[in-house]
Amino acid sequence: MAPPATQFELAQPPNDAISALAFSPDSPSRLLASSWDKNIYLYDKLQNSGGEEGSHGTLLRTFEHRAPVLDVCFGKDGNEAFSAGMDWQVRRIDLDSGEQTTLSKHAAPVRRVVYSKEHSLLISASWDSTLHIHDPSNPSLSPLPVPLPGKPHAIAASPSKLVVAMTSRLVHIYDLSALSNALASPSPSAQPPQPWQQRESSLKFLTRAVAAMPSDAGYATSSIEGRVAVEWFDASAESQARKYAFKCHRTAHPQPDGSGSGATTTTTTDVVYPVNALAFHPVHGSTFASGGGDATVALWDAEAKRRMKVYQKFADSVAALAFSSDGRYLAVGVCPGFETGMEDYSGEGRTKIFVRELGENEALPKGKGK
Amino acid sequence: MGKKKRGHPDVEELLSRAWCYYCERDFEDLKLLISHQKAKHFKCDRCGRRLNTAGGLSVHMNQVHKESLTSVENALPNRQGLDVEIFGMEGIPEDIVQQHNQRIIQNFYQAQAERYAATGNPPPGQGGKGPAKKLKIETPEEIKKRLAEHRARVAAQKTTMNGGSATHTPLEGRPDGQSPAQNASPGAFNSPFPPPGGQYPTFPAQSVPGYSPPPQYPGAYPPPSIPSRPGSNLPAPHGLPPRPGQPGWQGSASTIDELVSGAAQEGDEIDQLIRMAEARIKPPKKPETPTGAEPPAEGGEKKSKKEKDKNVKMIYDDELSPEERMAQMPRYAFVVEAGA
Ligand SMILES: [Zn+2]
Ligand SMILES: [Zn+2]
């Protein structure tokens, strides 16, 4: 019998909403969280109980920024991190020394950062409708700007591709080696790198999240309208025919029909939540997790097109997800969801990070192994 | 399954057999049924523990594994819900019992008629007078009437919650995108029986025209008088208070959305049945949805065709992202300093 899975809550969570979570590439016990409270939080020793009953993980330190931090990722190792700031800056953070270096400045808040280990590239995406391509190992190279046709909302890197989801359902897929080459041999006259493919989102509503398959085969996107799409990079008609989309993170609320006169019918109202976060499992590459405004996390099998698990509801919206590099842990960032019409927002006191230690076969698609 | 007796059991014998609500298999005795249910329908896929009821399994998964049980495994598509509490033969909704019995009776007499046709022998003890003996065979009209009465009763019981579940749930979470609207065609997905597959030759659609699926007895089962349920040492499956220190704790699958088909298993004949049932209920592929991705939206058009008729409430519906909205709040706004 497999040991039961365990889930624990980190002590000392951020003071306001979480924008992103990231596990260290070389340790499953090291986790970064970026927050709207202008800080990045570095946790360690996730597996060990931190003394107090029910308290897990140790907050090693925080890294203060000038403005809310919209994204964070690790770099080449567990000591290097990058942040996307509301203050328009992309920063490199040395997690040991705490030293912060500004890598580039956009002309608007920076929404996302993603690091490609395969190409040693850092890509930042800003609401100024550009990407900046950085080589963090060569700070003398100035970042290469890549203009976009719309504001980017989500980006993800597979081993060879970069997926950029923008407003107006625009999706660009870039070849990472092309970006790398363009950065390494800049020529003033050359036009900026062109996308390898331009697509229209499979989802009709605003994209919330993108995650790329570790197998390099494709990616998943999610929207504000309780839906996830899975598609493949291969542009052949055959591969494109395999793409699909499905509804999720919704609840149905039956309501008595207002027509009166003893009618027994009910109308059902579907409450549709945004799907805020997606993450592929690094080991079982067909498995991915989605987290939604309905406060749930589900595991899906992309190949078999079926749902594997739903975890018990959290107290608030799921804002961020991350798998550890060994696939044993799933971190879940929980805070109140932002809803249409809200004039004020605060995640204070309700922002939490849960770390779930997965059972041996928990993320293993059925019919494989066991 | 038990060994078939030589000869042909009479219909009362067939009717007295224990059978499983979830998969319609029948068993020699209640003990076998209960162990079947524990092994096939109430087994924890995380640790292998076998519980006595779906509610017990739900509590177990919540407490031990921090997971929500979404549906009963290996169950027929419209029997996966957690809102019916079954233990052995207890808790089966009355209309389902009736349907089951009707099916047994129909199959029995059909098989008998076939034997009669094949052998030329009249059924024993009936002198060719036709099947009606002690057992009353209801006509489709009678069944309809009874179901109508039943539905009225259920409707009266229905309060505010869960009413529409039967038309909505099981495929909701299947990533192939089948929408509730598509599921809703009665007689296909909602048919209370698996497809014939040679087993159930005439029932139900033909004999119960206009039949619609029974509501799943929200809160009405189990009846208060169920005796000595072995699971009673378990905490009650519904209405448990959250465990201290578990902010995310919720009772057994609380929303209809969570009652999702999880039935695609490898293996035995139940699963085969389920697959057949699933295969049959799949709506004809429309080019724009289930397998292919969605069609492009036209300009500002937001609601897809199939959703126009439904009430849909989007928690967030905006051209700007939540982050952009939040960035406009004084609390989070960044003001570029001169010379910064
Ligand atoms: Zn069964
Ligand atoms: Zn278990």
UniProtKB/TrEMBL annotation, chain A:
Domain of life: Eukaryota
SUPFAM superfamilies: WD40 repeat-like
UniProt KW keywords: Repeat, WD repeat
Start-end of each WD repeat: 275-310
Lyase found in the keyword field: no
Matches recorded under Pfam families: WD40
PANTHER family: MRNA EXPORT FACTOR AND BUB3 (PTHR10971)
Annotated protein name in UniProt: Mitotic checkpoint protein BUB3
Species this chain originates from: Daldinia eschscholtzii
From TrEMBL, chain B:
Transmembrane segments: none
Name by which UniProt lists this protein: Zinc finger protein
Keyword Cytoplasm (UniProt): no
Region (Disordered) residue spans: 117-136, 151-256, 276-322
Extent of Polar residues compositional bias: 157-168
Residue span(s) of domain C2H2-type: 42-70
Biased composition (Low complexity): 289-298
Molecular-function annotations in GO: DNA binding; zinc ion binding
Basic and acidic residues biased stretches: 277-288, 299-322
Gene Ontology CC entries for this record: nucleus
Keyword line: Metal-binding, Nucleus, Zinc, Zinc-finger
Location of this chain's protein in the cell: Nucleus
Ranges of Pro residues composition bias in the record: 211-227
PANTHER family: BUB3-INTERACTING AND GLEBS MOTIF-CONTAINING PROTEIN ZNF207 (PTHR23215:SF0), ZINC FINGER PROTEIN 207 (PTHR23215)
Domain (BED-type) ranges: 13-72
UniProt keyword Metal-binding, yes or no: yes
